[in-house]
Design brief:
Layout: E1 3-8, H1 12-26, E2 31-32, E3 41-46, H2 51-69, E4 75-80, H3 81-93, E5 99-100, H4 109-116, E6 142-146, E7 148-149, H5 160-164, E8 168-169, H6 172-184, E9 189-193, H7 210-217, E10 225-228, H8 238-246, E11 253-255, H9 263-268, H10 275-288, E12 293-300, H11 307-320, E13 324-329, H12 347-370, E14 376-384, E15 389-393, E16 405-408, E17 418-426, E18 431-435
Parallel strand pairs: 1-2, 1-3, 3-4, 4-5, 6-9, 9-10, 11-12, 12-13, 16-18
Antiparallel strand pairs: 7-8, 14-15, 14-17, 15-16, 17-18
Helix pairs in contact: 7-8, 11-12
């Protein structure tokens, strides 16, 4: 019996795809192995969003290709964005790859594998893979649910619409069915993902339906937290804010990719908002929502970004004190409109601008988390370090990308358990706490 191993690179949307792939192959009598060196088939679910992600994917392919040359691995299958975008080039440069599957053709992966290995498909092929069960190889007590595919925003720096296609929402019924299945496996925190979650429903229902979806998901037994990722600022609407405000299961966590604040740069990025609207949105969220956590990203060094544009961004960061903030130097991606824009900026300038913003943010973050000392926060446990130390997350912390809480307790606490923690100390991005009933002032 062939064993397979999956390497997932890039964003959480790829995690979802890998889990569908694993479940599909296990249903075809293949065996998942978490040991790369004990696997006949290695599936690399790749990313090519920016240059760093592309390099990571290519480095991984070369590493696995070397294992194949040594006879450790029999077959290499490349799927995901890199395969979709560079199949011809990779086929020529890395002949060790046996099979290329793009961002949609992976749904037929069982057929391709059995054809490749000359095996017989042992059960009927199920057409709509996205509605199938998933094998939670990457997650357990929290899980990602992809509410749509593709993107219609066409930001000039982004290749995603060309790779993933137009925006395509999944049905509410299908998502509820999947979320119920996830809850039965032990998922307690549901994380909604898409290229733009705020647009959910506009293509199939003719209007925004994210607030309706959240309301229905919150009624599922076992789901205690619902976290939303990647809401474009122009897509956030009053009914959505109201649902987040009034629904105790939906976390006050706003992941809003702003990318810049200068109107001139935003226009060149083809973003559908401006500085005034962004400020009004942040003010509204902070007025309507109790202790919201806003997370955002900015791109510095975009073609044509002047010192005045950057100064505008710098002043905004100082004034608005976004709780969690990431900064990326502009990555020049071929086949995107921004690739040919005038005013390309040198790497040294981009790096300097990134460092300036991060230094400002370090101080903001330190002050923000110091204010949490002495407060009681609900925490979900992610890891057991030893018999007295645990790692968890608050509503402010999404897995892998945000901070954590280091907790000491004399009690035995299980992964996936929710506990109340008193915060006793803070670091730049993380918190330290103790179980509430063991806290003494």
């Amino acid at each position: 019996m062939n064993k397979f191993h999956i390497i997932t690179l890039g964003c959480s949307k790829n995690i979802v795809d890998s889990e569908f792939i694993s479940e599909k192959l296990k249903n075809k009598n293949l065996t998942y192995s978490d040991n790369l060196y004990d696997s006949d088939i290695v599936i690399i679910n790749s990313c090519t969003f920016i240059e760093d992600a592309k390099e990571e994917s290519i480095d991984t392919i070369f590493d696995i290709a070397n294992l194949k040359k040594q006879g450790i691995v029999k077959y290499i299958i490349l799927t995901g964005c890199l395969s979709q975008r560079y199949e011809k080039e990779l086929e020529k440069e890395i002949p060790e790859i046996d099979l290329f599957l793009g961002t949609t053709s992976f749904k037929d992966i069982d057929k391709y594998i059995f054809s490749l290995t000359k095996n017989h498909v042992t059960s009927p092929y199920i057409e709509n893979a996205i509605e199938e069960k998933r094998d939670y190889i990457e997650t357990s007590h929290y899980g990602y649910i992809k509410i749509s595919e593709g993107c219609d925003n066409n930001c000039t720096y982004c290749i995603i619409p060309k790779i993933k296609g137009n925006y395509r929402s999944r049905t509410i019924e299908g998502l509820i069915k999947e979320a119920k299945s996830m809850a039965k496996t032990g998922v307690r925190e549901l994380i909604l993902i898409a290229q733009d979650t705020s647009l959910y429903g506009t293509d199939i229902y003719g209007e925004k339906k994210l607030h309706i979806l959240l309301n229905k998901l919150s009624k599922i037994e076992g789901i205690e937290w619902i976290r939303i990722h990647y809401m474009y600022p122009e897509g956030i609407y009053d009914d959505l804010i109201e649902e987040i405000k009034n629904n105790s299961k939906v976390l006050n966590y706003f992941d809003i990719p702003l990318q810049h604040i200068s109107d001139r740069v935003l226009k060149r990025m083809n973003r559908k908002t401006n500085k005034e609207k962004i400020k009004n949105l942040i003010n509204k969220i902070r007025k309507e929502i109790d202790e919201p956590l806003i997370r955002t990203t900015f791109i510095v060094g975009f073609p044509g970004e002047t010192e005045e544009d950057f100064k505008e961004l710098e002043e905004f960061v100082k004034e608005y004190k976004i709780e969690r903030l990431g900064v990326f130097p502009y990555s020049r991606e071929e086949s995107t409109p921004a690739y040919n824009l005038d005013g390309q900026i040198e790497k040294e300038i981009k790096t300097r601008r990134k460092d300036i913003i991060l230094e400002i943010q370090k101080s903001i973050s330190t002050q923000f988390f110091m204010q949490k000392i002495g407060k009681k926060l609900k925490v979900i446990i992610d890891d057991v370090v030893d018999e007295k130390t645990y790692i968890g997350r608050t509503y402010m912390d999404s897995p892998e990308i945000d901070g954590v809480v280091y907790i000491t307790s004399k009690e035995d606490i299980e992964v996936g358990q929710f506990i109340d923690v008193i915060i006793t100390d803070s670091m730049e991005y993380d918190l330290i706490g103790v179980l509430e009933n063991e806290y003494s002032k």
